[in-house]
Each structure stands twice: as C-alpha cells, then as structure tokens.
Amino acid sequence: MRIVDLIEKKKLGNVLTKEEIDFIVNGYTNGTIPDYQISAFFMAVYFKGMNKQEIADLTLAYVNSGDKVDLSKIDGIKVDKHSSGGVGDKISLIVIPLVASLGIPVAKMSGRGLGHTGGTIDKLESIPGFRTELDEDTFINNVNKYKMAIVGQSANLTPADKKTYALRDVTATVDSIPLIASSIMSKKIASGADAIVLDVKVGSGAFMKSLDMAKELAKTMVDIGKSLNRNTIAVITNMDQPLGHEVGNASEVKEAIKVLKGQGAEDETTVALTIAANMAVLGGAYKDFTEAYNKLENIIYNGKAIDKLKEFIKIQGGDERIVDNLDLLPTAKFNIEIKADKTGFISSVKADDIGIVAMQLGAGRKTKTDKIDFAAGVTIVKKIGDKVNKNDTICILHTNIEDTQNTEILAKAAFDISENKPEKIKYVYETIE
C-alpha cells in the first residue's frame, strides 16, 4: 500500500477502505508518511469529501492512535457535552452541577483556551485552590459518589488528531466538515462517554459562520456517534454575540454562579438549560425534553443547583466560599469603560473581536505556553437590541495592563449601532438527533 496511490484515489473522488484510512493515520502518526503527503491528502478530502463510513473510520483511527479513557467503573450512563467553541461560553460550568443534581454521572475531560476562545479548565482554575489534575481513582470515586468530576485532557489522547490539526491549520484545510467532525468526535469517543451532547456554535464568534455549514457539521457528528454506538444529539446555538455578559476566566465563573442562582442572562440560561435537558434525556432521567427542561429550571430556582456547584468546587479542592462572596475571585486593577459614540440600538456585537479584545487584555493565549491573567476580561453591558444613548457605557475592559489604547479601539469597533431596533435573535436554532 502506498500513500501516493491513496491520495490519487481520493483526488478522483473514490471511497477509501478502513484499512487504507488506518494506514494513512498510523503512517503519519509514526512519521513514515511526511507532512507534504498528508497535506495533499487533506486537500483531496477538502475538495472531494468523505462518505459516512469513511468519516467514522477516520474518527476511529484517531481514537485508536492513543490512550482511551475507561469509565466502566462508573455506574450509570456517562453523558458528556462538547462545544465547538465560542466567546463567553461558560456552559460547561453551569451544566456539570446541574446535570449531576439529577443523579446523572458527568465525567468530563476539558481543555485550555487558545486564541479568542476560552477553555473550561482555565476558568475553573481561576477559583482559588481548584484542582483539575486528579488521579484516576479520585476521578472515578468523585463521579460515583457526587456524580461529577472534571480533569484536563490526557497528553496522549488522540495524538494523531493533535498532529494533523496542527498541519490543517497551516494548509487551509481546517474548514473541511469531515476533518472537523472526526477531530471533535474522536476526542469525545476516546474520553469514554456513553452519550454525547454537542453544542454546535454558529455566527461571528464561532468556527461555523453560516447556519447551513453548522447543520452539516452537526448532522455529520451525529452520524459518527451513531456509527460508533454512542447516543449523540447536536444542538445548534447562536454565537453572533458573546454568550451572556462576561468574557474572561474569573468573570465567567461569576456569571455561571449567577445563572445557577437564577439571576443569569436570558441567552446563556436558555442555552444551558437546553444542553442540560438533552443530557438528562440521554442519561435516562427523563424521556421528554420539555419535562427535563422544566425540572432543571426548578432545580435552579429552588437552590439545589447552586448547592451542587458548591459541592463540585469543594470536592476538587477549591474555595466554595466564592459562591457567596465573588470578591474572593481574582479582580483586575483597571476597569475601563467604553462609551457609545451615538444614540440608537445595538445591531451587532462582533463576538470574535470581543474574544480578541479579551485575549489582548490578558484573558487568553496567543501560544500554548502563554500565561493568562484570570482577572482579565470584558463585561458586555449592552447586547443586540438594547437601546443606547451617546456616551452610554457599552462594555467594560478589565485588565492589569496599563497601555490598552489599541484594544479600546477594537472594543468600540466591535459594537454596531443603528437607528432601528433589530429583530430579537434566536438563541437555539435547531436540535439534531
């Protein structure tokens, strides 16, 4: 078997066998197939695509390239969720205690942020004392006893995907649906979950800019889950503006606490309850989505959800007092108000630009080795549809950096103000099962 023949085969639009896909992935992982040939193969996939079976086989090849997490010692149906990435996306912080409060085990592995999208691990580590490095026994015991635990991703989980993703990034093949879908699903399959809820973001702050592309990605990932015997649901949600009002690590923890106290913004509360309700259905707690949604809403308003968050923080070594005293979280030295330059209605808030602003303030990383400032971030004061008068504050920048002039310009430019009030935006577009 030769890689050049397989590149030619895919270039002509023909279907690859499982053995051929395994040969390609294994060869690139062990170094016998060079970068330039895999680049040619990815470009052939970009233009010719893959069928359902090819994508499932590619996903499984990624899974088998490294470690697989064994969650068989955990009782019940293990349900995981994944977000395709966004700005101000603190949904994991909300749904972990929320779903666990129903008795459904949530054994979660999460990553760190890079670029303008934040990472759940970074957010949780802004809580004093919170540990995301747990040994296997502690992780499993916490899930069995408390129904929840979170750890950082294993270094050797899907190494083939890590290696190929870096190459796709520099060969203009990142936005290939088969390659995106197999990349995302391989990590979820390797993480050991029985069922998966996917939060597929679409809009200016998401990887998928159009609803059609988001639907195609969602359907492809659900098909992969089905092919590999994982119950999978994809929810397509709006990322045309940051989710909620806070972007940044400690700031997003504060906002997640507000949601679990019943004081959260409408958009993030709706998305969180939608994701959690689908997790509850897949976990077997309820057969009906609406019943699950209503029950979870009640759990928020009767105080059980916030109590479960306190427990979550405590069992992972964090200071649970932060739930009742937000001042115990890191705070920035400078808080810079950005003002509207005219009167009207907010017609758009460019989520990707806000993400870049937060990164420049210290909340994110430009490279994997960068240190982040847990206190840095952006408060979105005015969102799409809000009325503003000239000189009203539209957002607040939080930072420990003294010179932020260029960042302030970018922050102001992220907000568009029009004379007419825009239509109310949808928070959840569609659910694909």
Automatic annotation (TrEMBL):
It catalyses: 2'-deoxyuridine + phosphate = 2-deoxy-alpha-D-ribose 1-phosphate + uracil; uridine + phosphate = alpha-D-ribose 1-phosphate + uracil; thymidine + phosphate = 2-deoxy-alpha-D-ribose 1-phosphate + thymine. InterPro entries: Glycosyl_Trfase_fam3, Glycosyl_Trfase_fam3_N_dom, Glycosyl_Trfase_fam3_N_dom_sf, Nuc_phospho_transferase, PYNP-like_C_sf, PYNP_C, Pyrmidine_PPas_bac/euk, Pyrmidine_PPase_CS. The keyword Endoplasmic reticulum does not apply. The lineage of its organism: Bacteria, Bacillati, Bacillota, Clostridia, Eubacteriales. Pfam families: Glycos_trans_3N (PF02885), Glycos_transf_3 (PF00591), PYNP_C (PF07831). This is Pyrimidine-nucleoside phosphorylase. Belongs to the thymidine/pyrimidine-nucleoside phosphorylase family. GO terms for biological process: pyrimidine nucleobase metabolic process; pyrimidine nucleoside metabolic process. One of its GO terms (cellular component) is cytosol.
